[in-house]
Design brief:
With 229 residues, the chain is α/β, with parallel strands linked by helices. Helix content is 36%, strand content 21%. Bound molecules: zinc ion.
Length: 229
């Protein structure tokens, strides 16, 4: 039987401005929690993911969460940043050019740039997977709707915590065969198992406190420069 590894497909670092996750701590927490592949998906930047990749190349996948004019995209194996504010088609074209894997996060969560069904249907043929579990969705029904939508259409599914603080890291993850490229990931998702639970109200409070402290913390920048040096 093929051995399965655990992958976390959605998390943020201090390069996202709304996250308190410092890179070294994020990597250490991922390793501690048995995560073997960690896609770092900061908002509209890959600088944090690139810095993390240097520190732990076998763990980190360089990703990005990109705000387009119709909703957000998640991308993995990104080598060139795609800026926010483009049409979804243009963002997808730029990602395809560099061979990235493309997914859609928190598909129906209107609170967080969720997609209108007509826009979604238009880009679906160009997308590799749907995020059907996001631990930060306030209601389980939003994830269930995404999962049903994907299952009805036979679309590959991924999951992530969307961790903006370490409290949340790993709450959503995928068990799947080992992979190290977009094509291997596409193949591995055929036998993937989605696991996850929503952030509890207490964890939500802790996460907000950590994110707030992270923003105030004067050492934040120096930590980043240590990572880069
Ligand atoms: Zn996110």
């Amino acid at each position: 039987m093929t051995e399965l590894i655990r992958a976390e497909f959605h998390c943020h670092t201090v390069y996202s401005h709304d996250s308190s996750n410092r890179i070294q701590q994020l990597i250490a927490a991922a390793r501690e929690r048995g995560i073997a592949r960690l896609a770092i998906t900061d908002h509209n930047t890959i600088s944090g993911a690139l810095a993390a990749k240097e520190l732990d190349p076998s763990l980190v996948i360089v990703g990005e969460e990109i705000l387009t004019l119709s909703g957000e995209l998640l991308a993995y194996y990104v080598s060139k940043v795609v800026p926010k504010g483009l049409s979804a088609n243009e963002a997808i074209a730029r990602l395809k050019e560099q061979g990235a894997f493309i997914a859609i996060p928190h598909v129906f969560d209107r609170r967080r740039h969720g997609w209108r069904v007509e826009d979604l249907l238009q880009i679906l043929p160009f997308v590799d997977a749907l995020e059907v579990f996001n631990a930060r969705c306030l209601a389980g029904s939003i994830n269930r709707r995404a999962r049903e939508f994907a299952q009805e259409r036979g679309l590959p599914m991924i999951a992530g915590s969307d961790a903006h603080s370490l409290v949340e890291l790993g709450l959503g993850s995928v068990l799947l065969p080992e992979f190290d490229s977009p094509d291997e990931l596409r193949a591995a998702l055929k036998t993937a198992v989605i696991e996850g639970r929503l952030v509890s109200p207490l964890e939500h409070l802790k996460a907000s406190a950590l994110i707030g402290l992270g923003r105030l913390n004067p050492w934040k920048k120096s930590d980043q420069s240590t990572v880069r040096s």
